[in-house]
Specification:
- It contains eight helices and seven strands; from the N terminus they run βαβαβαβαβαβαααβ.
- It is an alpha/beta fold.
- The protein folds into two domains: 214 residues, 3-Layer(aba) Sandwich (Rossmann fold); 37 residues, no CATH class.
- The radius of gyration is 18 Å and the shape is globular.
Length: 260
């Protein structure tokens, strides 16, 4: 249980981040949501989580590409709760193109949101964790933190960077009751992925089932999507006392993708 703990999950208004927020609220944590989306829908999510789980749930609209906005978000959380006990760096974006056609502004945005934001949140959240003598940092990486795919140079570079950041910070805080780990999902069937299936089918002139089997799940030996609930359960476990000796780990949850 995470009762009396406060968890900040970036990029948590949908998909994996929202699934983690649900799991943490159900386990008794206070939750700070972050991400973009329709304001009314986000408020409905916030209110539902609070009502269903009796949790204190806040929302911060900080743009994770902007260090000043990140600092304001962290400071607001610390002012209200005193400590961010659990930090989940989940915010991320994607762009796919050959490197010689890759727009530099897309590279900059992906590195800023997928990698640099984790640096900023971590450096700002750690002092209160150190003072308390307890903390959990979970970085949402990807199978692409361990292997590469063509046309994803910025994403793969950022996720490899997350793996290195995870290991480094874990070593720095190993004696202070703080663990730092990275989760590396394969394809997860989020609403974003669901939307990509018909679009990819149309673009490639194949069926939606072929998109699933021959494109998305080609690299996953199980031929099954990872579920949001499975990723959230792993994140919750890493934040509990039973995982106190797991730190600096880069943990695949990918249906066997990186075992090949």
């Amino acid at each position: 249980m995470l009762t009396h703990k406060t968890a900040l999950i970036t990029g948590s208004t949908s998909g994996i981040g929202l699934g983690i927020a649900e799991a943490f609220a159900a386990a008794g944590a206070n939750v700070i949501l972050n991400g973009f989306g329709d304001a009314a829908q986000i408020e409905a999510i916030r209110a539902r989580l609070a009502a269903e789980h009796g949790a204190t749930v806040r929302y911060d609209a900080a743009d994770m590409s902007k260090p000043a906005a990140i600092e304001q978000m962290i400071n607001a959380a610390l002012a209200e709760f005193g400590c961010i006990d659990i930090l989940v760096n989940n915010a991320g974006i994607q762009h796919v193109a050959p490197i010689d056609e890759f727009p530099p502004e897309k590279w900059d945005a992906i590195i800023a949101i997928n990698l640099s934001s984790a640096f900023h949140t971590t450096r700002l959240a750690l002092p209160a964790m150190k003072k308390k003598g307890w903390g959990r940092v979970v970085n949402m990486a990807s199978a692409h933190a361990l292997v590469a795919s063509p046309f994803k140079s910025a994403y793969v570079a950022a996720k490899h960077g997350i793996a290195g950041l995870t290991k480094t910070v874990a070593l720095e805080v190993a004696e202070q009751g703080i663990t730092v780990n990275a989760i590396c999902p394969g394809y997860v069937r989020t609403p974003l992925v669901e939307k990509q299936i018909p679009a990819t089918a149309k673009a490639r002139g194949i069926t939606e089932q072929q998109v699933i089997n021959d494109v998305m799940l080609l690299a996953q030996p199980t031929k099954q999507f990872v579920s949001v609930e499975q990723v959230a359960a792993l994140a919750k476990f890493l934040c509990g006392d039973d995982a106190a000796s797991i730190t600096g780990a880069i943990l695949p949850i990918d249906g066997g993708w990186v075992a090949q």
